[in-house]
Recover the amino acids of this structure.
């Protein structure tokens, strides 16, 4: 099956943007996020806020790696595989420990992108969007 490399690149960028968004919310709106998404009482949300902010930093690193892999022209396939597998593992862990919807938000898009990455030629290079 001949796959348009742009589709894979665009999907990796979208997943990167999802993680930029998650990082932004976790870093800047942690207590609010805990109260609204996980129904934490305000006092507990404030206590747990540093943990969520820390998770936001991790999500920002994943986002940076995904965006790097989307535009890299020398090692894009191994980079994409690595960062997409990181997202998949984190999504499965999040679904088990936090909320099952994490599978839909993180794991499914990353799994689709990973399958597409595997179907591209190992030496293919993609021009920037």
């Amino acid at each position: 099956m001949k796959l348009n490399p742009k589709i894979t690149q665009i999907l990796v960028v979208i997943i990167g943007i999802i993680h930029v968004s998650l990082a932004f919310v976790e870093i800047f709106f942690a207590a609010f996020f805990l109260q609204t998404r996980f129904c934490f009482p305000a006092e507990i949300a404030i206590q747990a806020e540093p943990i969520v902010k820390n998770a936001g930093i991790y999500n920002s690193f994943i986002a940076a790696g995904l965006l790097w892999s989307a535009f890299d022209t020398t090692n894009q396939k191994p980079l994409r595989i690595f960062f997409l597998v990181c997202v998949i593992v984190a999504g499965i862990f999040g679904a088990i420990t936090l909320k099952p919807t994490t599978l839909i938000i993180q794991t499914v898009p990353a799994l689709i992108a990973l399958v597409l990455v595997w179907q591209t030629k190992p030496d293919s290079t993609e021009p920037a969007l």
The radius of gyration is 16 Å. The helical segments are 5-28, 30-37, 42-71, 76-97, 102-119. The chain has one domain: 5-119. DSSP finds five helices and no strands in the chain.
